[in-house]
Amino acid sequence: METITVYKLFRQEADGLHPLFIDRDMVLPIGEWIEARAPNDIALHYVGTGFALIDLTRQRPLLMQDRRPRRNQIVKATHDRCRWVEVSNGNVYDIGIGSNGQVLRFAHRPGWHSSATPSLPAVDMTGKVWAECLIPADDYYTLHRNMSGLSRTHEPIDWFISQKLLIVKTLPQPATPT
To answer: CA 54 to CA 47: how far, in whole Å?
Structure first.
């Protein structure tokens, strides 16, 4: 399989690498292909307005509620191969957990998000690590160009969304100035 080398930012914890926000309690293996987990359009078709717990194995809603799920519900969902989503005004949002533990909603863009370079200067790197990864170089990814000026030179940043990801290795952390 042809591949593209990309870079992805992870949370580094004692038990291994974790996604930053969505499914943040998953421990990710190094050296194995990992399929992206997300509700598909069929599962989302049956969701009304509000919050829904989606079974990612069967791709169907299990529970609907009007209030935002709590952190413990989101953690349990991850371990049960489920995902909380919010549907509001026809838009779908994935529900995740932010850096300081708050429950947040994120744009529904299913797949592994990675970058062409290991650099996001606007991001606090505390507890995070860059990893060199591979994605399939076929129709399993989409390329995006971020023109919002996140790079220090205000150059556009190429980023990818792929359905598969292989973590090759973590990168050494740059020395912090003293």
So the answer is: 9
> Widest CA span of the chain, in angstroms?
54
On the 0-12 / 13-18 / 19+ scale of CB atoms within 10 A, 172 is exposed
Beta strands in 39-163 (DSSP E): 50-55, 60-65, 82-88, 91-97, 103-107, 112-115, 128-136, 141-146, 157-162
Determine whether 51 is exposed, middle or buried from the number of CB atoms within 10 Å of its CB (0-12, 13-18, 19+).
Answer: buried
The pTM score is: 0.85
Question: How far is the C-alpha of 3 from the C-alpha of 86, rounded, in Å?
Answer: 34
CB-based contact 141:5 (threshold 8 Å): no
The Cα–Cα gap between 74 and 95 comes to: 8
In angstroms, rounded to a whole number, what is the distance separating the alpha carbons of residues 66 and 44? 16
Give the pLDDT confidence score for residue 151 in this predicted structure: 44
Rounded Cα distance between 93 and 85, Å, is 5
Measure Cα distances from 138 to 92, 115, 125, 158, 168 in Å: 27, 17, 31, 17, 19
Is the distance from CB of 118 to CB of 158 less than 8 angstroms? no
User: Mean pLDDT for each consecutive 10-residue tract of the chain (178 residues)?
Assistant: 93 95 94 95 89 96 96 96 94 93 93 88 84 88 58 62 95 67
User: Whole-angstrom Cα distance, residue 84 to residue 70?
Assistant: 10
